[in-house]
Structures are given as C-alpha cells and as structure tokens.
Write a structure and sequence with these properties.
The chain is mostly helical and 360 residues long. 55% of the residues lie in helices and 2% in strands. Strands 1-2 form a two-stranded antiparallel ribbon. The chain is globular and about 65 Å long.
C-alpha cells in the first residue's frame, strides 16, 4: 500500500528526456547506482529510515553490482558477450571478471552471490523456502560494495563516499527479516523506496533523467507483488498456486486474478458500489496493460539486452513515467484491498485456509 505522504509529491515533474537513453551496461549501471546512492544518503542520517525498505535497498545494491560486473566483462572483450545477459549469479560473473571467488563471496555475503538474485524481490524460492531468517547485518557488505564500486566505476561515473564506522550507522544497516512475513510487506518496502526517490526528485537532489529506469522497475515489481499477494489471499480457491512463485508475466498473473475478481464484481447488487468497483478495476487493468506492454517479464527496465543478448526493445517516451505514476496511484487501493472488500461483502469466495487464518 502506498504511504499517505505520497500525496505530497503527487504532482512532481517526471518528464524524461528520451534522447539521453542508452542501451548499454554503463548507462543502466549508472541509473541503478545513482538510485542506490540516493537511498544510502538517507541511511547515513541514522534515523531508522532503512529497515522498512531494506528489501528494495539491498536489491538496488545487488543489481548495481551485477551491472557493474557485466559492464567490466564487456569492456574487457573485443566484442559484446551475449551470454553474460543470461546469468545473474554474481559468483559466476566475478569468476569471469578474474575476481578471487572466496574473497568476493566473503565481501558480499549478504547479497547471496551464488544465486540468481531473486532473494530481495520475493519472500521464498520456487520451493517455498524462505530466503532469510533472523537479522541481516549489511554494514560490511555495503562498505565493501562502496569500495569496489569506487575502484571499478567506469570513468569514475559514480563515486560514493565510504560510510563512517560507528554504532549508529551499523544499527541503521541492521535489518530484521522476521518482520517480512509476506509479499504484502515486501510491497511496502518497494513502495517506500519509490516514494523516497520521488521525494528526492521533488527536492532537486537528483534528476528524474538519472533514475527513471530503477523507478520504472520498482513500480512494475510493486504491481507484480500486489497481484501475487492478492492471489495469496484468495487461498486454496486458486487451482494452481505455483503461479505465485514461478510466474513473472503481468498478463498471466492478471488473468488468474481477474478470473476471480471480475465475476465477484458482477455479483454486486448495489449499483454505486458496482460502478465504483468497475472503475477501479479498469484503472488497475490499465496499469497492468501499460506495464506489461513496456516490460512483459521484468527484464527491460533492469537490463539493456534481452535474454538472448539482443538490445532491449524498451525506449522511453517523454511522459512515460508520468503516465505510469498516475495509474500507479489510482490503481493502488484496488490491488491492495479488492479481495478483502469483495469477500467481506459476500461477493468473493476465498479459501478455507485464509478464512481460518482470519478467524485466529
């Protein structure tokens, strides 16, 4: 759910200059490291502003490192390396870059280097095993990342000031994974991060042209998580729950979601309630369609090439982020509350497993 303060930056100028867009590893790296640096500046204040968005914070750090490694690999070759687009395993990429595997994994242990990187986007793997339990002490990994970035940043594009080492910043970067109990909470991490980045644009601390790619991804992922969490709340009325853990296609997820929601709305007898529900349904569908058209399977906003190594099809238009943000704000309440409201009204059937949890 989008936090209330989002209304304060609702009307900010999000106009993009499309002529600046580049489809290469350096450009995507610069976008993501800039977004991460924006969050890190907030963490430096040591005002408990990181734990409630640490999943997105760590995603941005890990993804920046992945892009930096891939940029290094391509720069050190005579031609483009198409196969580097296929792997998201940081240890494999570090091996190719000539890094000491043991040292690299130790320095970035929090980032789960020997994985495909889903750990900061979802709660569990495809076997429903939770990625993290207990506390996550990210200070050393964060400091090592800053030093590594400053050493390898192409043409010193983005240099980050190392962290002071004191108990305040260490506490700020100590995260409590047991508080992240479901996809809905991860969604709030992403929404809070989106809000913070928009706030920094509003305050002229960063230009929208420097971070529009991570913003588009964060919004797209928030939409994906909200649909998945809504499906989870339908419970065992879902014929195939594997779609929640294994599917990243917004169109496929929406089709499952709407197969339950649309009939429920049609069953509403109060015309005002029905019309309002159809209006909000239409707004959510428009957001889904726009995001799916731009990035069907959560790849175009993160990488300059597709899974086959060819240049990404995504090219921003001047007002695309404004359009996305407008629908994102309008669709939020429906995506978050439609299942609960329709169930309580007696229009939607949810699983016995969910009803049991609600009654406990």
């Amino acid at each position: 759910m989008i936090i209330d303060d989002y209304e304060k930056v609702k009307g900010i100028d999000l106009t993009i200059n499309p002529t600046l867009h580049q489809r290469n590893w350096t450009y995507y790296y610069q976008q993501y490291i800039t977004a991460f640096s924006c969050l890190l500046d907030v963490s430096r204040l040591c005002k408990n502003q990181t734990n409630f968005r640490y999943m997105a914070f760590l995603f941005l750090m890990r993804h920046s490192l992945e892009l930096l490694l891939k940029n290094q690999l391509e720069q050190n070759q005579t031609g483009p390396i198409k196969n580097i687009s296929k792997s998201h395993n940081l240890l494999q990429l570090a091996d190719l870059a000539g890094e000491d595997r043991i040292v690299f994994e130790r320095d970035f242990n929090v980032l789960k280097c020997d994985s495909e990187g889903d750990c900061f986007r979802y709660l569990t793997d495809n076997n429903s095993v939770q990625y993290f339990t207990g506390t996550i002490d990210s200070f050393d990994t964060c400091q090592n990342f800053i030093l590594y970035n400053n050493l390898h940043s192409p043409d010193a594009l983005v240099k980050i000031t190392p962290l002071d080492d004191n108990k305040f910043i260490r506490n700020e970067l100590l995260f409590y994974s047991n508080e992240v109990r479901n996809l809905g909470i991860i969604t709030t991490h992403y929404d809070a991060t989106i809000f913070e980045l928009f706030s920094q644009i509003y305050s002229n601390k960063v230009s929208v042209n420097d971070i529009y790619l991570p913003l588009l991804f964060l919004i797209r992922h928030s939409v994906e998580l909200k649909i998945k969490f809504a499906l989870m709340n339908i419970g065992n009325e879902l014929s195939d729950k594997s779609v929640i853990t294994s599917c990243h296609s917004l169109n496929k997820l929406w089709n499952v979601f709407t197969s339950h929601i649309r009939p429920a709305i049609q069953n509403i007898t109060d015309n005002n309630f029905k019309n309002e529900s159809l209006k909000r349904y239409s707004q959510a569908e428009s957001l889904k369609k726009l995001m799916a058209d731009l990035d069907a399977n959560s790849f175009c906003f993160r990488f300059p090439v597709d899974r086959k190594g060819y240049l990404s099809s995504f090219k921003p238009t001047k007002h695309i982020l404004e359009e996305v943000n407008d629908l994102y704000l309008k669709a939020d309440s429906f995506l978050c509350f439609a299942v609960g409201v329709l169930f309580e009204g007696g229009y939607l059937t949810i699983g016995d497993d969910i009803i049991h949890d609600l009654m406990e």
